[in-house]
Amino acid sequence: MSFTADRLLLFGASGDLAQRMLLPSLCALHADRLVADDLVIVCTARSDFDDDGFRAFAHAALDTHLAASRRPAIDGFLRRLRYQPLDANATDQFQALADKVDGEGRGLAIFLSTAPSLFEPTIAGLAASGLAGERTRIGLEKPLGTSFETSARINDAVARAFPEERIFRIDHYLGKETVQNLLALRFANIFFEPLWNSAHIEHVQITVAETVGLEGRVGFYDGAGALRDMVQNHMLQLLALVAMEPPALYDATAVRDEKVKVLRCLRLVAPDETVTGQYAAGAIAGHAVPGYLDELGQPSDTETFVAIKAHLDNWRWKGVPFYLRTGKRLPERVTEIIVQFKPVPHSIFAGRGARTQPNRLVIGIQPQENITLSLMSKVPGLDREGIRLRSVPLDIRMPDAFAGPTRRIAYERLLLDLIEGDQTLFVRRDEVEAQWDWIDAIRASWADHGMAPQPYTAGSWGPTAAIALAAKNGVTWHE
Ligand code: BG6
Questions:
Q1: Strand pairing of 305-310 and 274-280?
Q2: Is 234 a catalytic residue?
Q3: Are the CB atoms for 462 and 307 separated by under 8 Å?
Q4: To bridge 77 with a disulfide, which of 27, 201, 328, 416 should be the other Cys (CB 3.0-4.6 Å)?
Q5: What kind and span of H or E run contains 147?
Q6: How far is the CA of 378 from the centre of ligand 1 (A)?
């Protein structure tokens, strides 16, 4: 049912994500008048605030995390907020929450940003207090489980109260402008698509590198590791967008149908096609940083780096490796996709001493939003000593190309889509399950082969074995 919610119920409202992302995003939407004047935002968490106490808390978070240009809107935004303390394990407390939400109005959007252990009691409480009616949709923030089985359990619990059309699973990478631009690049231009296959592409690389370490998320991260924290969701979604067939429409069903087909083609990874690492003390940008175990304060075999050579067993991608790499405490924060094309089938310049290099497309997702296509070009000259060719970049810097429009953070987009009910950029259950299937098999193979992460110095690009993983096939990671 299509409706624009006039109530938003935010669980986990005093948490880190709410302070850094959700409240600032909502305030930005308010400042730009993108949400209805009568949208009420009911916030809930365990912390014991009253309405005014929570508004003061939200004010402090906005002062820290909202862009200065938007701060004049803070007071107006705070008037939308209500607060109700809640222990999600206490079913009897949900009635007071329902009273605070005060009926369904035009529609209710719920956003669950809580510990995974609270998902099931929260859903049960929502259902029991009448907060899961037909005009309610629910957004779920990761992590949704740690395996196929645990995620299925959460999904089953949610499905008991909400049909799939009203469940919005968040992968915030899909809210990033540059990630959506992948679709425009592929499907709004004629010239990439005919070459976008194993006949013309040699390999693809996807790197998501971070400079941050554990960031105090001891309990969560050590139980997850890089494979489940980054590859299972963000990286596989990027891979699916790069590799999927053209959907017939830009809508939730067509796009997600195509993504899930790709995810189901992922071949089981052989043990020698993955490398895991854990950062040891080192330095980033000239600053000494401690090792993972020092930050954690206890022994651990959790990987903070993973590199995988993945394959898609389908007609389009047969024989094209997808090299995936992600890690914490790497030398720079960068997310990028490299599409390495094959060499030209025959070089007419070889007899004149010139060498051609295969074309390469670099799609910068963050922090630089660039699209660079390397093209071979002749070096100017009279060529008495032979023709010289050189690779030159055809470079599009997105901020220059689009200087006018505001760059929005992922959660602004996703919260607005949740309020308005557009599921295109949310992950469907079958996608999540295909992702977990593949990830669980990798973890099982690590366990079977007793694989433990190899140490790497913080500030390096991971264990040397990751370089070897690509080098075996003559591939160099793009850096
Ligand atoms: C989150 C992970 O999903 O994504 C974090 O849990 C990671 O570990 C973060 O740091 C990265 O997001 P972004 O948008 O900063 O690339």
A1: antiparallel
A2: yes
A3: yes
A4: 27
A5: none
A6: 42
Written as six digits, the tokens of 127 are 């259902």
- Is the CB of 141 inside a 6 Å radius of any atom of ligand 1? no
Amino acid at residue number 180: Q
State the CB neighbour count (10 A cutoff) for residue 396.
14
Q: What is the pTM of this model?
A: 0.96
**178-405+434-471 classified as CATH 3.30.360.10:** yes
User: What is the residue-averaged pLDDT of the chain?
Assistant: 95
Locate the domains of the chain by residue range: 7-170, 178-405+434-471
CB distance 316 to 198 below 8 Å: yes
394-416 pLDDT tens trace: 998 888 888 877 778 899 999 99
The pLDDT of residue 250 is above 80: yes
Residue 323 pairs in a beta bridge with 205, 309
Question: What is the sign of the dihedral through the CA atoms of 291, 295, 297 and 303?
Answer: negative
Q: What is the CATH class of 7-170? A: alpha beta
**Rounded CA gap, 415 and 131, in Å?**
19
Residue 95 makes CB contacts below 8 A (sequence gap 6+) with 129
Calpha distance 209→10 (Å, rounded):
30
Question: Does ligand 1 come within 6 angstroms of the Cβ of 171?
Answer: no
DSSP string, 28-77: HHHHTT-S-TT-EEEEEESS---HHHHHHHHHHHHHHHS-GGGGGGHHHH
Q: CA-CA distances (angstroms) from residue 192 to 185, 237, 341, 415, 419?
A: 8, 20, 11, 32, 35
User: Residue 479 has what pLDDT?
Assistant: 87
Q: For residue 241, give the nearest of 306, 183, 158 by alpha carbon.
A: 183
- Kindly give the distance from the C-alpha atom of residue 410 to the centroid of ligand 1, in angstroms, as a whole number: 12
Q: Taking a C-beta distance cutoff of 8 angstroms, is the pair 22, 411 a contact?
A: yes
What backbone phi and psi angles, to 5 degrees, belong to 58?
-65, -35
From the list 30, 234, 311, 346, the catalytic residue is 234
Residues shown for the chain: 479
Beta strands per DSSP E along 146-235? 167-169, 201-209
Q: Ligand 1 in contact with 229 (CB < 6 A)?
A: yes
CA of 271 from ligand 1 middle (Å) equals 26
3-class DSSP state of 340: strand
User: Which of 307, 304, 361 has the alpha carbon at shortest distance from 336?
Assistant: 361
Q: What is the pLDDT of residue 1?
A: 67
Which residues contact residue 78 at a Cβ distance below 8 angstroms, ignoring those fewer than 6 apart?
55, 58, 59
Which atom of ligand 1 has the smallest separation from the CA of 142? 3
Angstrom distance (rounded) from CA 421 to CA 139? 10
